[in-house]
């Protein structure tokens, strides 16, 4: 199997996992935000705002990942699915995930023991957000690194940054 084909086949899995983790954190942070709004039972404004930020990061990911994926799948030759678009999307997404995960880690101290924690409500949910945040960030680090490699290839074959991630035509399976 050529490298191009390997990229074509594994792409949906990597982006699919980013999407699924985004759905999980979207539901957890959405639930927490609604709790905080109704019950005002957050420990600090920082905690509330950082959970809200998580909701934004999750929504960004859940909305945009399927669009980028579909463009790659159905319009690979289009500039809308070019190396440049992938680089920009992945870079922004990579930055906002690590920002969200590290900010919430800073607020809670990270890795809270929920059987001894007496400070934060929803200890398990906060720990889950942080864990999924880092998992998605690690996944995105790998995908972004792959994308840089593909950008270099596109550049070298003379397609520049507006070229496709891979060379093989759409029809070819
Ligand atoms: C969390 O605290 C409980 C009660 O002190 C303790 O038994 C347990 O080992 C702690 N768990 C971790 C992962 O530190």
Question: How much helical structure, as a percent, in the residues?
Answer: over 70%
Low-confidence stretches: none
- The span between the termini is 11 Å
Q: What is the gyration radius calculated from CA atoms?
A: 19 Å
| Order of SSEs | HHHH
Counting structural domains, the number is: 1
- State mean pLDDT (0 to 100 scale): 93
Class derived from helix and strand content: mainly alpha
Unique ligands: 2-acetamido-2-deoxy-beta-D-glucopyranose
What spatial form do the alpha-carbon principal axes imply?
elongated
Largest sheet: none
How many helical elements? 4
Beta-strand residue fraction:
under 5%
The count of DSSP E runs of length 2 or more, i.e. the number of strands, is 0
Explain what the structure shows:
With 173 residues, the chain is mainly alpha-helical. The chain has one domain (3-165). Helix content is 73%, strand content 0%. The chain is built from 4 helices and no strands. The protein is elongated and about 60 Å long. The model has no long low-confidence stretch (mean pLDDT 93). The structure holds 2-acetamido-2-deoxy-beta-D-glucopyranose (NAG). 2-acetamido-2-deoxy-beta-D-glucopyranose is lined by residues 113, 115-116. InterPro entries: Marvel. One of its GO terms (cellular component) is membrane. Keywords: Membrane, Transmembrane, Transmembrane helix. Its main location: membrane. Residues 15-144 form the MARVEL domain.
């Amino acid at each position: 199997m050529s490298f191009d084909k390997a990229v074509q086949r594994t792409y949906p899995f990597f982006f699919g996992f980013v999407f699924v983790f985004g759905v999980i954190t979207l539901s957890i942070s959405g639930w927490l935000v609604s709790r905080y709004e109704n019950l005002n039972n957050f420990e600090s404004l920082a905690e509330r705002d950082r959970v809200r930020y998580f909701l934004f990061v999750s929504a960004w990911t859940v909305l945009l990942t399927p669009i980028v994926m579909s463009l790659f799948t159905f319009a690979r030759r289009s500039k809308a699915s070019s190396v440049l678009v992938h680089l920009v999307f992945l870079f922004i997404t990579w930055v906002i995930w690590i920002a969200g995960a590290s900010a919430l880690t800073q607020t809670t101290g990270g890795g809270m023991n929920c059987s001894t924690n007496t400070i934060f409500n929803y200890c398990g949910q906060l720990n889950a957000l942080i864990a999924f945040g880092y998992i998605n960030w690690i996944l995105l680090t790998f995908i972004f690194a792959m994308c840089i490699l593909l950008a270099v290839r596109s550049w070298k074959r003379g397609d520049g940054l507006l070229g496709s991630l891979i060379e093989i035509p759409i029809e070819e399976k």
